[in-house]
Amino acid sequence: MKGDARSGPGLGPGFGARARIRAGARSGGLVERRSVRVLLGALGLCGAFLVVELVARSGVFDDQALPPASAVLARAAEMAVDDGFLDDLRTTVSAWLGGLALAVALAVPAGLLLGSLPRLRAAALAVVELARPIPSVALIPLAILVFVEPDRVERSLVCYAALWPVLLNTLYGLRDVDPVAKETLRSFGFGPLAVMWRVSLPSAGPFVVTGVRIAASVGLIVAVSAELRAGGDGGLGVYLLDSQSGGGRPDLMVAGACWAGVLGVAANAGLVGVGRLLFPHSVRSARSGRGRPFPGTGGSATRPPRGAPRARPHTPDGLNRSGAGR
After folding, report:
1. Contacting residues for 16 by C-beta, under 8 A, at least 6 apart
2. What is the largest CA-CA distance in the chain?
3. CA angle, 302 as apex, 298 and 308 as ends, to 5°?
4. What is the pLDDT of residues 17-40, one digit of tens each?
5. What distance in Å separates the CA atoms of residue 255 and residue 183, rounded to the nearest whole number?
């Protein structure tokens, strides 16, 4: 019967049915856990909204200084159809994503190069550790002198801030590559580039995506900070400065800041989805709690990759069956 197609020696009758039941139970448990997380997140948002609303209406603070959460939510909804605000938002998103893309294009190849050459990595790490703690905001005057145009200033600062998380996560990802998998490919005659493509990149990929997620949040903060400090023709930071002038509109300022938070949440959710799409083996390994499978094969760490030449068994005297030595 089709239902017992997987039954056989060592598996016993009904093995396929039991496997389907266990898979269904795991899928049901996963959906239940996700539902619980979504419900708890919604409860947290509602609780924060209620706390801010009660504090603002309690009279402890000035109504003009701390607007109620309901007023902020109403202003944020009005901004969604405000063409002027949407233009400012597009300016910020353009500079943010441009700087982030440039940082990824520079950091990932640099991380792969440094991770593959230990001596070069040892020499470069001192420079990385020296440059990484420098705040991007401290470089705004220098960036204005060098790049002049506001959008180029903003992109350069975002690129600088986003460079380090991606670079360091790429390096750490390469350190986490299973050495048995690399040696297995080398034993089958694969060169350094093939080992990098088949083993190192798939293994380090989830770390790189995590670095990009961190860099996206940092880059958004730097983009808005650069607009607040350096000004320009538009952007979310410029909108916040304009809403502060003329007596100030705290509800508009907080609503604009909330839109920045929405951008960060959307970027993080999108990158999580990209990571699950590109590297499903890491998700399966995390769910099962087992070690990382062989990248690209989904099997054991010692299983040879597809297309690898078959190794000939050796006899105890060191000769293979064709008579050739090791």
Report:
1. 3, 4, 5, 6, 7
2. 93
3. 80
4. 777 777 666 666 767 787 888 888
5. 55
- Give exposure, 263-273, as e/b (b: 16+ Cβ within 10 Å): bbeebeeebee
Does residue 165 contact residue 100 with C-beta atoms inside 8 Å? Answer: no
Concatenated DSSP letters of 212-247: HHHHHHHHHHHHHHHHHHH--S--HHHHHHHHHSTT
* Residue 61: strand, helix, or coil: coil
The alpha carbon dihedral of 34, 258, 269, 136 has a sign of negative
Residue 76 near residue 258 (C-beta atoms within 8 A): yes
Q: Helices 69-79 and 250-278 sit at what angle, rounded to 10 degrees? A: 70
What amino acid occupies position 130? L
Place of tokens 């048995």: 180
Is-contact 174 204, C-beta < 8 A?
Answer: yes
10 Å CB burial of residue 325 (0-12, 13-18, 19+) is exposed
**Contact, 264 vs 216, CB < 8 A?**
yes
HSE-CB for 299 with a 13 A CA cutoff: 6
CA atoms of 53 and 66, how far apart (whole Å): 10
Amino acid at 205: G
- The pTM assigned to this predicted structure is 0.72
Q: How far apart are CA 95 and CA 176, in angstroms?
A: 33
Scanning the structure block, which residue is given the tokens 């353009």?
94
Total number of residues shown for the chain:
326
Round the average pLDDT of the chain to a whole number and report it: 79
